[in-house]
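Reopening this ticket.

The earlier resolution said the output was attached, but the attachment link was broken on my side. Pasting everything inline this time so it's all in one place.
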Amino acid sequence: MAAGFVGFEITWRADVFADAPQASSAAQFGTLGINFRARKPESDAEWRAAIDALRCATG
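Inline output:
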């Protein structure tokens, strides 16, 4: 959210390093390849609504 995007979602993930020479190093750190998508908000109101949805209730 800090970059100003809304609707972020991961659309694909895989262990792309499985057959690589350094596969054990990648696996040790839980490294995955991902594709994602997001978009810029169409208005300030949409941006504020997205930020408000992420706020934790305090009490």
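Reporter confirms the inline version is readable. The helical segments are 23-28, 44-54. The radius of gyration is 17 Å.
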